[in-house]
Amino acid sequence: MASNRGPRLSGMQKQVLSLYREFLRAARLKPPEERHRIESIVTSEFRRNSKQVDRKNFLYIEYLIRRGKKQLDQLRSPDTIGLSSLNVCLSENKNSKH
Fold first, then answer.
1. Which of 9, 28, 37, 71 would staple 13 via disulfide (CB 3.0–4.6 Å)?
2. Distances in Å between the alpha carbon of 6 and those of 11, 15, 43, 72?
3. What is the CA radius of gyration of the chain?
């Protein structure tokens, strides 16, 4: 019998999904009005990166995961109230196709 759990995910895909879930869990610990704003920013950033970043650009994806973990640590801090969006220019990556 085949499992209906969907396609098997790579290790990096599992890391990205785990990071996404951790952001949403961290958002639950913030005030309700800020929680919705955080969830919106996180969702839009992950979706934007899923569309703009080449899936074979492993170095850049690893960089985004490291940066996300740092932002998650900051968000988990009790002193942090909210989250702001950060736009990284991808023009350098788009132009360099080796």
1. 9
2. 15, 17, 21, 28
3. 15
